[in-house]
Amino acid sequence: MSFLKVPLPVKRPKYKVIQDYKFIPIANDESTKSALNYKPKPNDLFIVTYPKSGTTWTMQICMLLLNDGELPEEVRAKDFFARIPFLELMGSKAIDDACELMAIMTHLPFQLVPYNPKTKYIYVARNPKDVCVSCYFHNKSIYEFDGSFHEFMLFWLNGEVFYGSYKDHMLSWWEHKNDDNVLFLLYEEMKENIRGVISKIASFVGEEYKIKLEKNPEIMEKIVEKSEFSFMKQTTNKSFENFFSSKVNIAGNLAFIRKGIIGDWKNHFTEEENEIFEKWFQNSFSGTGVERLWDKSNVFTNLL
């Protein structure tokens, strides 16, 4: 039964349970368990999101920031995870094997993420309506979900998808938003003020990067240019297709970088679905502070 107290649809999104948590269907038990047991080093940098919340975009920005506005050679050669391994999919060995580790990417909630108080964590949150839509298309293109958006939405709202409940994931990190070693960002802020967010990331990662940006404004312009969605669509999608095609049967053209806009949910939600979603949102976040995060974006208003 769902939070709406109605039976969930028959067609279910795929996931794999490992140690009582829902991971992506292609997760490997050994790699995932090694990831959960990874011991972070003080100089590690984690990029953390709930799926489809700006993960790839943030990885791109960090790679460019840490490499003077240029993409590392391995990434240009279509190996996007060469410098920023996907922790729970690739395992801790990928971190050990990385020739020049820049960061570590994960979708883990706070209680499962490998934690060290001296390690730095960037968490990016995106409004859940757009996340749900993006997750739907992601599940269709990679994991062969053939139900309707409405059916997928019901599962998503109930956490019956890989990485589970958006609510639980968000709140687990929201509680730590003011920790010195956590930088909490909004996807929508990145869209509206990318230079400001890049500067914020630079200050968080290390004062030397902030100083370098101030002394070399051309680096900032390179980062902005190469983190544009038009640029990333030409380079990053092919890299992800190469990576995932050996692991799953890709249904059609893989588009990790699909639209990257704010408000795409309006193109997919019916008025009834919007009412269901808003009820879930208020039940989930009322009184936490999360319910005010997207006031400027007018996400949680009437559909029409």
Automatic annotation (TrEMBL):
Domain Sulfotransferase: 42-289
GO function terms (MF aspect): sulfotransferase activity
InterPro entries: P-loop_NTPase, Sulfotransferase_dom
Keywords, alphabetical: Transferase
A Pfam match: Sulfotransfer_1
Domain of life: Eukaryota
Keyword Isomerase: no
Record-stated family: Belongs to the sulfotransferase 1 family.
Name of the protein this chain belongs to: Sulfotransferase-like protein
Natural source organism: Dinothrombium tinctorium
